[in-house]
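Record type: monomer structure entry
Structure origin: computed from sequence
Chain ID: A
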Amino acid sequence: MEAKAAMEELIRVTVEDMAEKGYILPEEISAIDVSIPAAFFLSDIGKRLLKSNDIRREIPFTLLKNAGEIQPDATGKVSIQGIIDCCFKEDGAFVIVDYKSDNVYGEALNERAKQYKMQIDLYGEALERITGIPVKEKILFFLRTGKTFSF
């Protein structure tokens, strides 16, 4: 069985197990396109993640910042809340992976990635503050195209 088909089958079995355990409804199974997570896990970043012994998901945070750091003309403080999709340790530092489901392709995808840079930089700052562990890389992974952008 080729790698893609094997990964899709593994995900399909996992999804069915999730339905049996009540994490998702059985009727939701048909709405899941297993090719998307399969493409992620077969990508370079997915393979790196699978090698890690320390993978964390859905990490909530609140970050207090000077407003001028977010909006140049703003004053005072601003509280930023978010959830880091995923991070994993690699060589003693974290790699953040932020999944994007934008329906954008071609050159527009490069522009969209630039729009997310501040967001993922804030994720890196928050994770370092929370854990005291450096973030060595921040990656946007566009699910529809499989394209990655590293910051």
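Annotation 1: The beta strands are 55-66, 77-90, 93-100, 135-142, 147-150.
Annotation 2: The first strand starts at residue 55 and ends at 66.
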